[in-house]
Amino acid sequence: MENRTYTADAEPGDTVTVAGWAHEIRDLGGIAFLIVRDTTGKIQVKFEKDEMDDDLVETGVNVNRESVVQVSGAVEEEERAPTGVEIVPEDVEVIAPADPELPLDPSGKVDADISTRLDNRTLDLRMEESKAIFEIRAEVLRAVREQFRDLNCTEINTPKIVATGTEGGTELFPITYFGQEAFMNQSPQLFKQLMVGSGLERVFEIGPIFRAEEHNTPRHLNEATSIDFESAFYDHSDAMDACEAVVRAAYEGVAENCQEQLETLGYEDFEAPSGDFPRLTYEEAIERINATGELDEQLVWGDDLPTEGEHALGEEVGEHYFITDWPSEIKPFYIKDHDDDETLSTGFDLMHPSMELVSGGQREHRYDHLVAGFEQQGLDPDAFEYYTKMFKYGMPPHAGWGLGGERLVMTMLGLDNIREAVLFPRDRQRLSP
Description:
This protein is α+β, with helices and mostly antiparallel strands and 433 residues long.
């Protein structure tokens, strides 16, 4: 729109044209106010009824809230106005009227439940708090990409329609692909490993993953954003170093560039993590969980860590910590075992007190060991020949991880529901919008 001025840029003495939404109308009798909102903020428009054209006043005062309007006029200083200035209008145009009955109140004065908000995401993101979450999410992805580039990574994009699942036939969404059975990809795992054997060596990807999980909880999604990393000539320790750097960069980017959004969400002391992330072995983790006395039954070697155990451990250890040296039997086929103890894998998880954020490890780069790993987990190596055959042609040692993008934002901001961090969530109940 030509000659448009954003509300935040309107200065006393200017003649401006602002465009946005009718946020609020206050009619005080002889004087009325229209608050116009755009992406930069709000500005007051003053109507002195006795001194203005009747049609102009009627247009400005009778407009329905959330209608799209354009206002032209002089900007004057007014200390009592919310932003210290107001517009004395010469012209008001209703560009797109809104229905008087709104499904939710974008001003936030009337609360709406999460289902109503997700059904009306366009209106929901007109609320400052909802908008702030996605501005922070965008900064997280920007900062993460910058850190990956500092680590000399190449950004890649891998297929989301595949012939076989990354981890076999569980949790897969089947689709029909020109008469053949195919699946939505659970992870870029196998493809990013193939890339570290190419001339690229160190890669990252930020993209969707799909898991047909039965879980219907505030922290599970069926379509999520995965932040993936893989590097040739890295071991599991190197990969954890890179993971820590990326997570820290996300926090630092938000702390530096999202102060306004953090204030909107009520964060007064938001800080990036300081110090190294602790690294506990799996054995140490189950011992410390058992010592808390929070579980009805003691954990034993080979158990997965229950949610209440993770929470209890997180309360002791702190906001971010790694669990390393998981039992080989509970990690995927592509995770390499320790050379001196085949019962221990090089797999690791990055934990937040409320949930797991990252799963990673050093990968098995030796062809014979890789094929044996498939067979041990009941998978047919022939179904993955496109992947395994490349390990015959000189595959370097390599390591990497996958980080849940929504989980990172959720834990960073202390959100109650992961759906708060997704524009249009996909879960067992929600396929639209």
